[in-house]
């Protein structure tokens, strides 16, 4: 079995394919990271402060968030990717382990991001759509030759994240779904969007009220999750799996308020897009003919570097570059310019025959490239144009030219080990094909063993422990297994994906909300849970998970509820400018239904349920207390 795995890994390393899909995955995945860090920074006081704005967390956390944001930006644009990927992984591990993100603000999203961030360290994602490629071009090119970095990657670089981050997750989730009654009834995709705490602002009632459709979706999801890991390796199944998975996760984004998880999963589907589709997409958006011809001094190092930079970003093929020394003759507009002046600037001809020079050439380049047009428009503004022209003139007049004739060669300067020690270590570690095969195979075996441990522990031992006595040996095995899960959970993101199961929804028949009175005495809803019972923007993602999965559940505890009511009222009260030295919030409750089988028009029924006041949350002189009237929260 292990020998067969090594053969498959070796075949995956031997087959080379374009890296564009891997680059698209890196950008999409990094954008998810980027937006999540912005979310964390916005809610930093709610998430990290023991009591928001009163008992503050260390400000170093806020600084680290900003550093992490810069790291994510480097991943998006592909700048020093290897270092940025390592730093990003370390940040995920540290923040998940040492902050409340693990227990209080976790909904399974962090484990997906940790696991894929670990893989990102080793994947050759810099070979497409990256600034690292541009850095190599600039460093290795000469006046005579243009260096083109390797844009091919082993096909296994596509397979690994799909198998580990998607395939194993789906298989584990599918196994757990078989233990849930409402999933076995075909209602798995129907129930969460009918529960106010989980539904999005988009009213999906027309679809939710079609029982056969919802049953078809529910059973299709289970089948899809079981077969994905075993079928995506084969080309005929990739496009059907791509469409099914994309629809599946787009539905999550649209119908539930846990959009970060949906977008993170969708990012991985860039790796299933057929290479020919990327080629067709590139061809569809590229101009058949360049919109601008730019003439440059072939013997000017600065001009050559400028050409390399512009060509790297000219994804639409809008600009054609020609050397003045070899292509200027025959152009009427250029023939009239003395040679001494001709070599001082970049010149451009558009399709209408208009000639541009100096800064105006750069403006036309930006406009012709399409997506960079706003930069060109800004440079045309009075004042900015004059200032930009002054800067351009200073640089252009001070540039150096190579005057040693046609045979002059500027030697390339390769990256040295001292300049990039991390890349040097990476090359040494994966020096030979045999070493790569051995290490990848061992890693896959380790990941599979850790995932099986997690699945068996929670899918078999945990379920069995609820109904039968597993004995002393079983309890010892359970402790060992749990210790291993803690390790795999932290460092590889391998965790049980038993999310939104029957043991979470069963008995979840009451939800809570908060109101306050404005200075005029009018009762207003805290911008957290609205009158429908929905968590409103931006309280989605991990904040929704905190409230709907930890604070308010089918098994509420008054102490835990008081803790999170304190955090929510302190955060939003301060954001609203309320005086928390003497403030009062009304705690409201209403009943909802979460049946394990079909109930027509349930979304509207749950929204329409009336609220009742059950107590108040009081802030007085910086102290908080929860007062409930004749309601036993723990008995609900």
TrEMBL record:
GO terms for molecular function: protein-disulfide reductase activity. The chain crosses the membrane at residues 20-41, 61-79, 86-103, 115-134, 155-171, 216-234, 246-273. It is found in: Endomembrane system. It is a multi-pass membrane protein. GO terms for cellular component: endomembrane system. It holds the Pfam family DCC1-like. The keyword Membrane applies. Keywords: Membrane, Transmembrane, Transmembrane helix. Residues 14-277 form the HTTM-like domain. InterPro entries: DCC1-like, HTTM-like, HTTM_dom, Sporulation_signal_mat. This is Thiol-disulfide oxidoreductase DCC. It comes from Methylocaldum marinum.
């Amino acid at each position: 079995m292990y020998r067969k795995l090594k053969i498959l890994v070796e075949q995956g390393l031997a087959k080379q394919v374009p890296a564009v899909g891997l680059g698209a995955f890196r950008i999409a995945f990094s954008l998810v990271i980027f937006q999540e860090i912005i979310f964390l920074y916005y809610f930093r006081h709610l998430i990290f402060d023991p009591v928001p704005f009163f008992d503050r967390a260390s400000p170093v956390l806020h600084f680290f968030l900003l550093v992490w944001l810069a790291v994510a930006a480097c991943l998006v644009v592909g700048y020093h990717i290897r270092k940025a990927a390592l730093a990003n992984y370390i940040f995920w591990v540290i923040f998940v382990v040492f902050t409340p993100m693990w227990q209080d603000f976790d909904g399974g999203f962090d484990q997906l991001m940790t696991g894929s961030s670990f893989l990102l360290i080793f994947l050759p994602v810099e070979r497409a759509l990256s600034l690292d490629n541009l850095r190599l071009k600039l460093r290795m090119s000469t006046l005579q030759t243009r260096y083109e970095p390797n844009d091919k990657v082993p096909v296994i670089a596509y397979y690994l994240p799909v198998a580990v981050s998607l395939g194993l997750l789906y298989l584990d989730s599918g196994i757990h779904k078989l233990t849930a009654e409402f999933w076995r009834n075909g209602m798995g995709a129907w129930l969460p969007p009918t529960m106010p705490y989980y539904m999005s602002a988009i009213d999906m009632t027309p679809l939710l009220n079609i029982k056969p459709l919802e049953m078809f979706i529910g059973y299709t999801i289970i089948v899809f999750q079981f077969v994905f890991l075993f079928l995506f390796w084969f080309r005929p199944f990739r496009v059907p799996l791509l469409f099914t998975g994309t629809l599946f996760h787009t539905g999550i984004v649209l119908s539930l308020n846990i959009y970060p998880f949906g977008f993170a999963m969708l990012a991985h589907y860039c790796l299933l897009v057929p290479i020919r589709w990327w080629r067709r997409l590139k061809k569809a958006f590229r101009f058949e003919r360049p919109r601008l011809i730019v003439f440059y001094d072939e013997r000017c190092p600065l001009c050559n570097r400028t050409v390399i930079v512009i060509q790297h970003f000219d994804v639409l093929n809008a600009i054609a570059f020609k050397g003045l020394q070899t292509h200027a003759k025959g152009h009427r507009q250029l023939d009239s310019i003395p040679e001494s002046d001709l070599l001082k600037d970049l010149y451009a001809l558009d399709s209408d025959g208009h000639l541009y020079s100096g800064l105006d050439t750069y403006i036309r380049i930006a406009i012709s490239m399409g997506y960079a047009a706003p930069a060109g428009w800004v440079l045309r503004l009075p004042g900015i144009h004059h200032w930009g022209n002054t800067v351009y003139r200073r640089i252009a007049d001070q540039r150096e030219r190579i005057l040693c004739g046609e045979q002059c060669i500027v030697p390339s300067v390769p990256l040295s080990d001292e300049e990039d020690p991390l890349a040097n270590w990476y090359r040494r570690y994966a020096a030979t094909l045999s070493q790569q095969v051995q290490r990848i195979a061992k890693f896959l075996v380790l990941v599979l063993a850790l995932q099986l441990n997690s699945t068996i522990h929670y899918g078999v031992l945990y379920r069995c422990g609820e109904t039968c006595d597993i004995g002393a040996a079983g309890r010892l095995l359970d402790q060992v297994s749990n210790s291993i899960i803690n390790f795999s959970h932290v460092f590889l993101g391998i965790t049980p994906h038993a999310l939104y199961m029957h043991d979470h929804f069963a008995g979840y028949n009451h939800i809570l909300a908060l109101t306050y009175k404005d200075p005029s005495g009018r009762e207003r809803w805290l911008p957290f849970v609205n009158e429908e019972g929905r968590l409103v923007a931006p309280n989605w993602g991990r904040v929704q998970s905190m409230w709907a999965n930890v604070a308010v559940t089918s098994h509420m505890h008054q102490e835990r509820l008081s803790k999170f009511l304190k955090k929510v009222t302190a955060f939003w009260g301060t954001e609203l400018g309320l005086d928390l030295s003497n403030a009062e919030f009304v705690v409201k409750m209403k009943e909802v239904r979460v049946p394990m089988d079909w109930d027509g028009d349930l979304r509207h029924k749950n929204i329409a349920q009336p609220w009742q006041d059950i107590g108040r949350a009081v802030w007085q002189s910086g102290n908080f207390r929860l007062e409930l009237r004749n309601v036993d929260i723990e008995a609900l």
